């Protein structure tokens, strides 16, 4: 089973049809991240493409989310991700400040 087939089969049988976009909360829940993380990625230029409706409401088109998920798939720990080769840049935990 491919990654995309796995995502599609993970939906509940009686779930409503998939909308053409994710809200911040939808995507944060899907990836088990905080909304603040998605906001930071938008600020520094990482994560999937998004649109702003009325200059305020952020939406992530499903196609851009799926493309982002499959683009950064890794097969082993020594693989070079597309992000490292100039693709999307997501801040690494190594850039966080530790201690006081």
User: Span from first to last CA?
Assistant: 46 Å
What pattern of helices and strands is seen along the backbone? Answer: HEHHEEH
The portion of residues assigned to helices is 25-40%
Q: With helices defined by DSSP (H or I, 4 residues minimum), what is the helix count?
A: 4
- Radius of gyration, whole Å: 15 Å
> Roughly what is the average pLDDT, rounded to an integer?
75
Strand content: 5-15%
Widest sheet: strand ordering = 1-3-2
Biggest pleated sheet: 3 strands, antiparallel
Structural class: alpha+beta
Structural notes for this entry:
The chain is of the alpha+beta class. It has a domain at 17-72. The protein is 35% helix and 11% strand. The chain contains 4 helices and 3 strands. Strands 1-3-2 form a 3-stranded antiparallel β-sheet. A hairpin with a 3-residue loop joins β2 (51-53) and β3. The protein is globular. Mean pLDDT is 75; it is low at 91-100.
Key structural traits:
100 residues, alpha+beta, three-stranded antiparallel β-sheet, 3 strands, globular
Short description:
35% of the residues lie in helices and 11% in strands. By secondary structure, it is an alpha+beta fold.
């Amino acid at each position: 089973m491919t990654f995309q087939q796995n995502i599609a089969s993970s939906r509940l049988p009686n779930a409503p049809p998939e909308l053409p976009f994710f809200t911040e909360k939808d995507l944060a829940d899907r990836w088990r991240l905080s909304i603040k993380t998605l906001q930071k990625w938008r600020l520094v230029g990482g994560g999937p493409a998004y649109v702003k409706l009325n200059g305020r409401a952020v939406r992530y088109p499903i196609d851009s989310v799926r493309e982002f998920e499959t683009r950064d798939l890794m097969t082993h720990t020594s693989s070079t991700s597309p992000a490292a080769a100039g693709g999307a840049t997501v801040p690494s935990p190594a850039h966080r400040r530790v201690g006081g």
